[in-house]
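Backbone Fold Data
Goal — fold tokens
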Amino acid sequence: MSSSVRTCYPVFQPCTPLSTNIATKINNTISIRLGKTTQSTTKSFSATNPTPIKRTTRNDLNFDDTATRFRIKGLVHRIRALSTSNTKLQMLQIIEKDSDFQTISDFNHLLMALVIAQELDICLSIFTKLPSLLLVPDCCTHSIMIRCHCEKNDMEEAKRALDTALEKGFTPDAATFIVLINSLCKRGKVNKAREVFEVMGRESYKARVQAHNCLLKGLSYVGKVDEALEMLMGMKGTLSEPDVYSYTAVMDGLCKIGRSGEAMELLNEAVGMGVVPNVVMFNTLLQGYSREGRPMEGVTVLEMMKEYGCFPDCVSYNTVLHGLLKWNEVVVAIGVYKEMVGLGLAPNTRLMGTLVRRLCKRSWKEKGLLQDAGEVFEKIKKSGSVVDQGTLEVMVQALCEGKKLDQALVNLKEMIRLGYSLELITFDRLIQRLCDGGRVDDAISTLVLLQANGGVPSRVSYDMLIKELNEEGRLVCASNLFGAALKLGIVPNREPKVNVMKREGLEADPGELVSLAKLA
């Protein structure tokens, strides 16, 4: 909660500390107890004939004051607690009934807390009660309402609230302008944001740069990258000298429209001007190269980051890894993956699955990659993530091609345990490799496993098994297997070779008969 409160402090200007303790009765009541004052006076929203008292109308909220911060945070916490057990209408009734204010500062505290707690409708409703309290809104009040409308995504009302404040002679501080400019830009209303920027006038260097950055980001967002680039160049040599965020905003716009080369030039220019690049700036460039199908240049940027002392983060590596896999640079991708893991960074699980599949398919020609695929595969399982069906299937097939049959059987059983629908090609490949390796019994067990889990073996599997059983002289098993296939409506191309077998070959192992009985 502290972070959300802290972001609101700059919206308001300095003030004297408030001597009011705001407390809430969570059980359907909320009250504000006033401290000792020279004139003890209370006021309720529900009062009909208020007694006139002296009101403070100057901008006197100090959100740098520790006591004020804690008071606001406490009120926010209590409002949120109240919202869990009451509807917005009930909350409004409670606040109207039991809230008392002595100064406009008290009122601003409540408005600010409601905005932070995202109770925006209640904030607007409470604001309409201000005249009945004989309170005059000050600059802080108008600033809070501007922010409230921005949070509600009602930019017309936010702009109107600014106009009202200006008409009354108030000049909101720079942070209020920046909130409004940023909100307008996020919603693509760049022209309106420019109007607000012009009204902002001469503020501090930092505030002007922040406002410029919002406009640069807004222009890039709506595709007006050339205008953003022109504005950026116009900032150079002025009091609003562009910073790292200025350059990053324009670089992002360039990368999104396929002009990553220009973004790289802008990066070099920024460094030449003494701007220290950060990881966000580099990640923007990495994403651009990935989109444009230039993943190897992304790898170069990774090395460049290290040269500048800006070490890549998870986003950096995952972006490069995604680009390499998307454009089928598998060998380089496994190198980037190993470097990432070596640094203790966690790769994206979906990217790891993609890496396994690409390595498996590539391993049919480059055998050394199967081990890498197995290591990545095991890391996915150890992370607690569920391996998707496609990755398991490709892994089983690759293990079969690499003659890692025991591991293939383990992963096949894992597929069944996870309830995946079984692809016949995976079973066919495994049965074929088991037969090639002289492991006919394991091949028959695999066939039984397939049928036991709702699968229907293919003619190819029956042909391979009957062929191997014929060659081993196991006629009874071959005959029973042939019969099981016919019962399923499958007519194998191969038949048991009864006419060439000796009488003693008709005896079969009892275990084999049990397995084949399951098929029948």
About this structure: The chain has a mean pLDDT of 80.
